[in-house]
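User: Can you recover a sequence for this backbone? Please restate the input before giving your answer.

Assistant: Of course. Working from this structure:
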């Protein structure tokens, strides 16, 4: 079997680790064939994305792009720009992703490769659906692209493109007209099952589960689709898809009042989260992507007598050093064993503590959600919703701390985006457009928690008090990294009178905890701004 076919077999069977190692070997063997090497660089970049090493993808795409520019190969340059856009979207770099897809669009008419063309259209559609699904013109464009792809279904070899196209079309109606979304999801499910596109099958099964759970309250059907997704995710050993499946199974069984099974899925989810954290941590320290360069240097050393002699001297020096170290190692061996034992005991205690804290937070969320389903007054229900949002904000902080290598700091951008994602459904339901700009920052966990709670409280206040029914509703959030401080800006364009909502007590208390002198402007909606000093 030739290398291209073998790599394809690995990828088709979702054996990305095997594809990763084998493609490295093929790259080394193709060093004297620039055309083949450029092709393998592109394949290798896509494999790196599949094993969550997305930041490394651009290095290999740059190498391939340099070759194809010299050859003036428009088709391959078009494909590389599309891949760059998809990787940037995966990394939540919205502006960069949009820039790449627009650059690719300039080459669209020059491209002659149908597979590249339909992959581009699918990714163009995905970007519009993810970032502009509330813009009427964008919705029209999404449907136009989707219909174009589906009308060429027989020409497209990669059927996952069809599955994901149907999926995006379904999501356009998921919140406002869910009945219209269901046929798209069911058709995507049938195509994925027929052509055994495992990853696409898992994604659409999760979407069907969410439909029956959220729109029909048919928890048995939801659990059926989530369980099918779990079976396929286990076959391809995809931890990230397993994470989604177990999280949804936990929620569905809890909503079904089967709390015992919900806790079982919760424990399983924690195990998967731990595996992902361990896997991600190890990947940071892998240097295998530099293996091609290292091997080339070793070959140069082998062919150079001078370097061979130098290597021999180094080996002798190292051997002498090891002999000296051995004497000291005997003396500290006993101490190291004791330290290792204490370290393992501490790790066990930390894992158990985090396990219990996470379980308790989840149990509190389940109990609050269960209370919300009961026949309680509207005022009490709003209080419970407010309480649930704050518990989920704190739970998110705990998960970010638990998976972070540095337990004293939080990646603010990722944490606050997760907090905002908790409001996706209600934003869609209330037709509120959220725009945000959050700089890449690492801050202490206390400040992160107060900012998360503050944003949660501000959003709830805007949803509840700010807007007239028929107005255009917008919420803006900005957290900017200045030289010595962090600037916070929150604004809505609410048109309701603000006489009674000038200085909310909880917001005042949270700003006090942040040591922030804030300003509130109610001349055009509601605007809160302040600066906080960076902690050393």
């Amino acid at each position: 079997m030739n290398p291209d076919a073998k790599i394809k077999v690995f990828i088709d069977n979702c054996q990305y680790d095997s594809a990763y190692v084998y493609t490295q070997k093929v790259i080394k063997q193709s060093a004297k064939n620039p055309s083949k090497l450029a092709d393998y660089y592109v394949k290798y970049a896509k494999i790196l994305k599949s094993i969550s090493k997305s930041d490394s993808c651009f290095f290999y795409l740059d190498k391939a792009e340099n070759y194809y520019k010299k050859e003036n190969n428009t088709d391959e340059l078009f494909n590389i720009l599309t891949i760059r856009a998809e990787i940037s979207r995966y990394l939540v770099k919205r502006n960069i992703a949009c820039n790449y897809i627009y650059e690719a669009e300039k080459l669209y008419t020059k491209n002659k490769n149908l597979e590249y063309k339909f992959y581009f259209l699918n990714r163009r559609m995905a970007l519009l659906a993810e970032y502009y699904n509330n813009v009427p013109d964008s919705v029209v464009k999404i449907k136009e692209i989707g219909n174009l792809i589906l009308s060429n279904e027989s020409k497209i070899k990669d059927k996952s493109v069809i599955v994901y196209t149907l999926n995006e079309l379904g999501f356009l109606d998921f919140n406002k007209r869910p009945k219209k979304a269901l046929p798209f999801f069911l058709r995507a499910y049938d195509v994925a099952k027929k052509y055994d596109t495992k990853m696409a099958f898992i994604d659409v099964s999760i979407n069907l589960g969410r439909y029956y759970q959220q729109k029909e309250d048919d928890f048995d059907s939801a659990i059926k689709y989530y369980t099918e997704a779990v079976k396929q995710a286990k076959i391809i050993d995809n931890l990230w898809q397993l994470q989604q499946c177990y999280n949804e199974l936990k929620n569905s069984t809890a909503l079904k009042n089967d709390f015992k099974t919900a806790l079982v899925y919760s424990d399983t989810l924690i195990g998967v989260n731990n595996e992902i954290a361990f896997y991600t941590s190890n990947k940071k320290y892998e240097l295998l992507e530099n293996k091609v360069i290292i091997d080339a240097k070793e070959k140069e050393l082998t062919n150079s007598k001078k370097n061979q002699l130098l290597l021999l001297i180094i080996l002798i020096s190292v051997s002498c050093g090891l002999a000296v170290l051995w004497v000291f190692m005997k003396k500290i061996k006993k101490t190291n064993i004791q330290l290792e034992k204490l370290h393992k005991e501490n790790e066990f205690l930390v894992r158990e503590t985090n396990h219990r804290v996470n379980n308790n937070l989840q149990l509190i969320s389940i109990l609050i959600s269960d209370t919300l389903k009961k026949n309680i007054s509207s005022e009490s229900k709003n209080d419970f919703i407010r309480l649930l949002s704050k518990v989920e904000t704190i739970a998110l902080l705990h998960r970010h701390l638990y998976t972070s290598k540095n337990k004293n700091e939080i990646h603010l951008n990722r944490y606050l985006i997760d907090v905002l994602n908790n409001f996706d459904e209600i934003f869609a339901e209330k037709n509120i457009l959220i725009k945000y700009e959050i700089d890449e920052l690492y801050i202490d966990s206390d400040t992160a928690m107060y900012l998360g709670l503050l944003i949660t409280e501000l959003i709830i206040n805007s949803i509840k008090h700010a807007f007239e029914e028929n107005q255009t509703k917008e919420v803006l959030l900005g957290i900017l990294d200045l030289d010595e401080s962090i600037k916070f800006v929150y604004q809505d364009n609410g048109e309701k009178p603000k006489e009674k909502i000038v200085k909310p007590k909880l917001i005042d208390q949270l700003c006090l905890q942040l040591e922030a002198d804030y300003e509130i402007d109610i001349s055009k909606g509601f605007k809160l701004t302040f600066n906080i000093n960076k902690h050393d």
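That completes the design. The chain has 21 helices and seven strands.
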